[in-house]
Amino acid sequence: MSALVNHSVKTIAENIRNTRIRLAYSQEYLAAKLNVSQNTYSKIELGYVKLTLERFFKICRVLEIDPAEVINADGVAA
């Protein structure tokens, strides 16, 4: 079960990163919108920081993407 959760977290983080890149947003821009440091935001994308639901939904709002797409999609940045 733990391996499945870790895989899911990594997939969500990767989907967030792919969407940010597709939109040509910098990590600095997202970090400012989330009121965190760029370093913290980078760790979110790498899956090193636990992502709270509140922060997850805020990221989705900034990226203008449905949270279900981030969770269910493979690579979102199509």
From TrEMBL:
One of its GO terms (cellular component) is cytosol. Keywords: DNA-binding. It comes from the Bacteria. Residues 16-70 form the HTH cro/C1-type domain. GO terms for molecular function: DNA binding; DNA-binding transcription factor activity. SMART domains: HTH_XRE. It holds the Pfam family HTH_3. InterPro entries: Cro/C1-type_HTH (IPR001387), Lambda_DNA-bd_dom_sf (IPR010982), TransReg_Diox_bact_type (IPR050807). PANTHER family: HTH-TYPE TRANSCRIPTIONAL REGULATOR, METHYLPHOSPHONATE SYNTHASE. This is Helix-turn-helix transcriptional regulator.
